[in-house]
Every structure is written in C-alpha cells, then in structure tokens.
Write a structure and sequence with these properties.
Helix content: under 10%
Distance between the termini: 53 Å
Strand order of the largest sheet: 3-2-1-20
Number of strands: 20
CATH superfamily: Tachylectin 2
Largest sheet: 4 strands, antiparallel
Oligomer: single chain
CATH architecture: 5 Propeller
Order of helices and strands: HEEEEEEEEEEEEEEEEEEEE
Structural class: mainly beta
CATH topology: Tachylectin-2, Chain A
Number of domains: 1
Amino acid sequence: MFKLRELNFDQWLTIIIGILIIIFLIITIIILLNPVKNFLFVGIGTDGIIYTSPSINGNSTWNKASSSSGTHLSSLIVLNDNTFAGIGTDNKIYISPSINTSSKWTGKSNNTGLNVYCLIQLRDFTFACVGTDNKVYRTESTTLTTGITWTPQKNTSGVIWILELKDKTFVGINNSNQICTSKTLGSDGTANVWVPIGANIQLISLMQLDDGSFAGIDTDNMIYTSPTISSGSTWTKQTNNTKLVSITTVLLS
C-alpha cells in the first residue's frame, strides 16, 4: 500500500510543484473568466463641458476633456461601437468618435422634430430617449443616423431621465426629481406606470455602476452613491471639485 511517509525528498518536491502548478492554473482561469475592468468616469459640467476623473469616491478631481469653444452637452453615453453620443444644451443629439479636446460633434436630426432630455442605448442596441415633453420615445434603429423615426411609448410621460438596469427593468427620474421604476418602456402596447420608490434624494440624472450600485447627480449638482435604489437606501455624498449634471463611464480595459 502507498504510504506518504515512505516518499523521499525528490518525490515530495515533485508533488508540491504539481500542486502549485494546479493552483496557478486555477487562478489563471479565474482571472481570464473575470478580467479586471478599468473605468474612466466621464461627467458633464454645469458649463456643458466634458470632464473626466479616475474615480467618483472621496475627493475626486475632474479635469476638462473638451474645449469650452466646442459643442456644449447636458449628457453623454458610450455607444456599443465605443463612439459617443451626447445631448446638446439645445436638446439635439450629437455623435463623436472621441471625447478629447479636438473631437468634432456632429448633429443628428430626426424626422419627428423631437427635442431630447436623455438618450440611452438599450441592450438590444436600439435606442430610447426622453423628449422635452417628458415622454419616452423609441426607435428600432441601431445607429443614430440622420432622419430616424422616434415613436412615443404608451403611458410613459412624466419623466426627465430613464435608465435600463442590468436585469432589463427600468429606472426613471420623474418631474419632481424622484426615482421611479417600471418593468417596461410601454413598447408592447401595455399601460406603463412609473412608480416612485420614495427614496430620500432628488436627482437630475442617474447611472448604474459595473458592480450594480448606483451613482446619481443631485439637484445640488454633486455626486451621490448608493448600493441600491430601494426606498430605504442610503445615498452618500461624494466630494468633487466640479459641479456636474450627468456622469457615465468609459471602459479602458
């Protein structure tokens, strides 16, 4: 019968090296399946200029990423092709390949004459937006080409901001700056209702972070974070050197 006590030094060394190799392979597989993601936070200041920061926690510093003489924005999203779309302070949609100081923003008109507060790209790569009439609109287009048609969604009025969560439900901010939720955008023709959750914060914009938590811009133009958006959730104010109107993230690696 095989006995461990009868192994010599070289045999023990071989076993230990084999165990270490197995551990190394397991760790490598875990890293490959769960790669570390590095994000850059991108914010729009109250001056309509793009700012960036490596963090939103603590005393974060925001640096200008766009020229004050360029297109002024109120919000910004990253598209699935890693280009950018923004809402100008004129409530028009603009697109750009980058967000640096030399980037050019091109306006994209639509055939419904719609002015927009908020724009999102859904998980099926189509788009939804909130018009300045506080109604939700959708388009089946997966690109923001000139002349696309925006279709109003049933019973989706009364919001200034919308967000699709990781579980494919929706969060909105209503006209009273309260967080509200909905299971759909009303695109299936059913009556859609935005239900306020009773959170103790008033927001003008909101995003979900990669870890599932949330960051929002309060009416004081400061960043607040919370692990959840339930009625009893705690929102923590984050100190930063720039007043903002919206934030998003750009995946660096």
